């Protein structure tokens, strides 16, 4: 992976400048670190005083991204020992939340050795193992119980709770698990973890979900005479890939959240949000040069140097990912250049599968072989989740503005 730091210019101008220095078709991720820093700083500044923002490393674990976020966010949420080690390579002391549904004994021991703030416990068996390993290390480990609520946010793109999934402890089992926590010697229950959705776009529904989580936590605290202090409401705040002008209304979310947390009963809680997609998506771009254009069975195909092995999200979610065309005027061949105007195109990659599609039936004003398609909102769940070794094509370059 090639990385470079660029002076602050427009994404399009940067791409054209980089293209000038390359004979091979252009393909790269570009990240605007200033955009990232400004965005997350605004998020944090607007939160109520008893709220804390953590970054979910799974969204984009690039070290440069973590380095940019470490001085700003409260901490990081990690879902493997590998993610914990990446965070610790950036900062030795920043708080880490350790989650995931299949933690190995070695990972639990590693999390203890790396001094994580909390382990999010996903099952009774895991709870017993965490206690046993903590006992072996002679420590008391702080935990949150991950709850699979019966309630979910109806319009979220993916649901982790409210439906049968592998995540968390069924809400109806929580009383039994709380009693077990009280019996075990080396775990200290500090609250609950309620991450229940992905890519929710409804601010009102999101605050209602937070309220529901708080009511549950407060009821259990009272029932079992507990002294708790943390409610982790998870992440799940989304990005609208279909209509980029209609993004999650952060300001409305914040206004409603302040209203909720002004309740005297809620003041005592540390309310944690562990966002990933909403933090990094907007700072990232994926650029891929058009290497061919053709018509098959009445449809026009634009074929890229790149594809779902670099950027899997649109193929996985079956959506048309938003893009713009960056015109490249230079043409290296002696023959005529293929172009289309005001035409519906399907954007495909270089893989040998018909599933390698990033957008279908999108009308573009003008597009030519040799132009570059610039995909927006690719800073989260882009490179990290892609099947990078399929067909062994060269990796895209990575640039940081």
From TrEMBL:
One of its GO terms (biological process) is lysine biosynthetic process via diaminopimelate. Residues 35-281 form the Orn/DAP/Arg decarboxylase 2 N-terminal domain. GO terms for molecular function: diaminopimelate decarboxylase activity. The modification N6-(pyridoxal phosphate)lysine is found at residue 58. The active site is at 352 (proton donor). Keywords: Pyridoxal phosphate. Its cofactor is pyridoxal 5'-phosphate. Gene3D superfamilies: Alanine racemase, Lyase, Ornithine Decarboxylase, Chain A, domain 1. This is Siderophore biosynthesis PLP-dependent protein. It comes from Bacillus taeanensis.
């Amino acid at each position: 992976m090639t990385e470079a730091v660029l002076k602050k210019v427009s994404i399009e101008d940067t791409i054209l400048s980089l293209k000038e220095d390359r004979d091979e078709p252009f393909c790269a991720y570009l990240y605007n670190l200033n955009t990232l820093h400004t965005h997350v700083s605004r998020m944090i500044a607007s939160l109520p005083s008893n709220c804390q923002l953590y970054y979910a490393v799974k969204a984009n674990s690039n070290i440069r991204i973590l380095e940019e976020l470490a001085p700003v966010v409260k901490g990081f949420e990690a879902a493997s020992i590998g993610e914990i080690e990446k965070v610790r390579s950036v900062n030795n002391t920043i708080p880490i939340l350790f989650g995931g549904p299949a933690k190995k004994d070695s990972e639990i021991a590693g999390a203890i050795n790396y001094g994580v703030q909390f382990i999010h416990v996903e099952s009774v068996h895991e709870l017993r193992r965490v206690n046993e390993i903590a006992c072996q290390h002679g420590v008391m480990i702080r935990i949150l119980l991950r709850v699979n609520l019966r309630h979910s946010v109806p319009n979220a793109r993916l649901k982790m709770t409210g439906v049968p999934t592998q995540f968390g402890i069924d809400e109806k089992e929580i009383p039994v698990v709380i009693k077990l926590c009280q019996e075990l010697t080396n775990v200290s229950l500090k609250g609950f973890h309620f991450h229940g959705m992905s890519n929710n776009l409804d601010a009102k529904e999101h605050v209602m979900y937070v309220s529901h989580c708080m009511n549950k936590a407060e009821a259990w605290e009272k029932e079992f005479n507990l002294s708790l202090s943390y409610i982790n409401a998870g992440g799940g705040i989304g990005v609208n890939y279909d209509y980029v002008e209609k993004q999650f209304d952060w300001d409305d979310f914040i206004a409603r959240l302040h209203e909720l947390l002004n309740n005297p009963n809620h003041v005592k809680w540390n309310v944690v949000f562990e966002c990933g997609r909403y933090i990094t998506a907007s700072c990232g771009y994926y650029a891929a040069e058009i290497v061919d254009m053709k018509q098959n069975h009445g449809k026009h195909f634009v074929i890229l140097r790149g594809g779902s092995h670099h950027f899997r999200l649109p193929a996985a979610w079956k959506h048309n990912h938003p893009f713009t065309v960056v015109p490249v005027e230079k043409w290296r061949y002696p023959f005529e250049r293929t172009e289309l105007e005001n035409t519906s195109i399907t954007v495909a990659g270089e893989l040998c599968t018909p599933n390698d599609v990033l957008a279908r039936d999108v009308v573009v004003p003008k597009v030519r072989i040799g132009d570059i398609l610039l995909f927006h909102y690719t800073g989260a769940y882009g490179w990290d989740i892609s099947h990078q070794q399929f067909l062994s094509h060269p990796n895209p370059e990575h640039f940081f503005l």
